[in-house]
Amino acid sequence: MVKPKRVVKPFYNPPSLIARQALSVFYFGFLVRWKALPQWLSQVKKTLPTAAGAIGMGCIGFPIHPVWEITNACNLRCKQCHASSGKPLSDELTTEEGKRLLDDMAAISEFRMLALAGGEPLLRKDIVELVSYARWLGFEISIATNGTLLTPQMAQDFKKMGVANIAIGLNANDKKIHEKITQMPSSFERTKQAIHATTEAGLNLQINTTVMKENQEAIPDLLDFASEVNAQIVLLYQLVPEGRGEQQMELNIASYRKLLNMASQNQRSNKAIIEPICSPQYWAYLMSQNDRKPSRIRMRLAETIFKGCVAGSGLCYIKPNGDVWPCPFVPITAGNVRHTPLIEIWHNSEVFNKLRDRANLKGKCATCIYKNICGGCRGRAYAHYGDYLAEDPFCFLYTPAKD
């Protein structure tokens, strides 16, 4: 195939970015009641490439980016896996099809950062070729891995290629808990080795974990560990019962609220940015601690920074066979890149456009004052009601817009 003209995607516009991010930090700091500058602010230079110019936060990281699940193959059998990963699919995109997909991504101006996930992406034999091509197109790259296959040499190689971020899955800083969830002996030591290889290579370290009954009590210790190893980001996924996760116990509403409070308290001293995932209530929760019914000005300011659920509006999720979903937890196909250009799916698909208009939300989510900075978890609504526009069954913050 003939390479297209290279697309250079600068990851930030300095004057506007600095001012807007400073505002984001100030306002977030106000919400969590910092008495001093947060420790993670000293590492912000390393997190900027991962943000790739995005401002604010959504429910699954920075607001606008594609995630490509490049394979369903995985060497672990984690109990919470939404993809039920294990064996590769028979119809996964080939290397050439993957490059065409990357070309299509590069044509979408909003897409500057790309996350490569799985399954276990390091099991794809062409991972280096795909990363190199994506970097050539100008993307900032994050690789989400369980870490068991990441060697020090691979980490060094990724650093040389310009990879911005390695996201490593760790269920707990406890061998017994971690391996009970991964169902694989020795996975704890190998994952910890990968964490150290990532930091030693000078790569941005992100730690991903899914919070559920089996590890909820271990989360504070995990956050302390993340701070100790100088992780830049920690994603705390709230379990959504999809895939193998259907067999796991979700947190109840009281435990969910406790988790968000613990995250905000820990953020005051933690060196990493702590981001609750599938938890769009987080930002509204922080606001509610200061003012149950914020002023219109405060709400408008918050809406420019906190996007809540970004399924379909800020997230585009591509499955190994080319199916395009709004989110890994909203398993509804908006099209397939083998048959429809990604740019057409992104801009014109019915499911994506319905999710972008929060006037389409139902139940309590439709009338809540926090609708535009939260919107409820669409994945959780789908898992519980079979309707991605239904109200979030785990919301504890519902505040009607009109009394």
Describe the 3D structure.
This protein is an alpha/beta fold and 403 residues long. It is 38% helix and 13% strand. It contains 15 helices and 11 strands. Strand 4 (140-145), helix 5 (152-161) and strand 5 (165-169) form a beta-alpha-beta unit. The protein is globular, with a radius of gyration of 20 Å. The N and C termini lie far apart (61 Å). The model is unreliable at 10-18 (pLDDT under 50).
Number of strands: 11
The amount of beta strand, in percent, is 5-15%
**Helical run tally:** 15
Which ranges are low-confidence, i.e. pLDDT below 50, for 5 or more consecutive residues?
A: 10-18
Report the span from N to C terminus. 61 Å
Instruction: Tell me the strand order in the biggest sheet.
Output: 8-7-6-5-4-3-2-10-11
Radius of gyration: 20 Å
State the secondary-structure class: alpha/beta
Q: Order of helices and strands, N to C?
A: HHEEHEHEHEHHEHEHEHHEEEHHHH
Q: Which descriptor suits the 3D outline?
A: globular
Percentage of residues in helical conformation: 25-40%
> For the report, how would you describe the main beta sheet?
9 strands, mixed
Mean pLDDT: 87
Sum this structure up briefly.
Helices cover 38% and strands 13% of the residues.
Write the layout of secondary structure elements.
Blueprint: H1 14-32, H2 44-51, E1 57-58, E2 65-69, H3 95-106, E3 113-117, H4 127-136, E4 140-145, H5 152-161, E5 165-169, H6 175-182, H7 187-200, E6 204-211, H8 219-228, E7 233-238, H9 253-267, E8 273-277, H10 281-290, H11 296-305, E9 306-308, E10 315-318, E11 324-325, H12 342-348, H13 350-356, H14 364-367, H15 378-385
Parallel strand pairs: 1-9, 2-3, 2-10, 3-4, 4-5, 5-6, 6-7, 7-8
Antiparallel strand pairs: 10-11
Helix pairs in contact: 3-4, 5-7
